[in-house]
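Title: [Solved] Serine protease, subtilisin family 3D structure

Original question kept below for reference.
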Amino acid sequence: MKNLRRKTLAAASAVTLGVGLAVAGGLAPAASAAGPDATFLVLAPQGATTAKAAARVAAANGTVVAKYDQIGVLVVRSTNPDFATAVAGAGVESVASTAGLGSALDESETVEVATADAAAITADPTKEPLYGQQWDMDMIHLPQAQAVNAGSPNVVVGVLDSGISSTHPDLATQIAKDKSTSCIGGVTDTTEAAWNPTTSDHGTHVAGTIAAAVNGVGVAGIAPGVKVAAVKVVNDDGYIYPEAAVCGFLWAADHGMQLTNNSYYIDPWELNCRNDARQRPVWQAVQRAIRYSNSKGVLNVASAGNSNYDLAHKITDTASPDNSDTPEVRENLTNACLDLPAEAPGVVTVGAVGPTGEKSYYSSYGQGVIDVTAPGGDTRFRTQGVRSTLTDGILSTTFNTATKTNGWGYKQGTSMSGPHATGVAALALSAHPGMSPGQLASFLERTSVTKSCPQGVYNPVPLSAAGPHAYDATCSGGARNGFYGAGIVDAYNVVK
Ligand SMILES: [Ca+2]
Ligand SMILES: [Ca+2]
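Solution (posted by the thread starter after getting help):
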């Protein structure tokens, strides 16, 4: 599915997979040749300490680089080519190398808008200089919401992403710096440079949607009164590795955040998923981390994906009537394969709509999978797919990684719809503190504006170069359905 995901939105960077490009330093043991420096997740049995596992790691020539006792997981680096075999034994439930298990951040190109205009500082989001281009905020009734509640500083939202520009004029005042970190390699680094963007401004855009200041400059965020924390999980090659995601969930849980936004995928389900001995431990580690964060009061929000894929029917490839999948492969693609974190239990899964409120051409869907929808942009519907209309994307804060300059620009994707749901959830918690993650998730659904299925086969972009049926999708369900879940999130309904 990786290819399908990448084709929808432009410009996932072409890079080589894998960790461990560094040459191992020091002297290798004379008896055995050193392999590449690889990262492993070592899991102690559920509920057990990691002490025994750590001893086995040392004996197997591994180095523990991060210890997550809360969930019984060690992040280990080792150049021992036989490490996985050597570490097995009492105190170790499972072990897996994460090499090759990073998934690419689904980047959409940023189109920057030139602006240096500043306006008077008001408490009114509609008075921000670029508000006229924020159709998404009108759709979720943001002006009405902020007249009631613009967010509480007690609410901190973890943005698990590619970092947040701490010099951005719309974000500098919005970041909880003491709660920000890098989690690259599964290891925290709280220096400011470590959690600022390097090769991607995806996280800066996401953060602006959630909490850009209403300060007379640029855009308005949904909940400017709350704080965002940068939790950098995307490496400089544009990949999210499981150890970084595990680190991010635990960091957010242990640093008093009530919400995380996850506009990325830990994406193993195109492979062999839980039936695969090497992926199973990775799965378990991520799921333990998500469960732990729930137990600490964190609600996690995740993007559904940009593949126009029916997540409820993974075995059915409607686009390929002549597909030659073997039955074994289909079996592996069923319930053993969940899209993480979007399909993990307790995670709010968010689809995308464009300016008309209809499903975006790229948005993945699925009855029982999509919980809510939100504006993510649809730059193709207006021309039925012939060309792009960028102003139908989502305008937010940007950081040009080439020139190292802050700005504002458009992106589209469920990466953009997710933070709208997160921002609305942050307003909900500001107005109604004390809700548990489960209560908040149901409140978010209950206050969303229901939207029914379109009739028949839906395709807003039949003139797409990809073909007349490339973006066909069929919606099923009633008031709660596969395209829109419980409906489009509404900022006013959660605070009124
Ligand atoms: Ca602003
Ligand atoms: Ca869900």
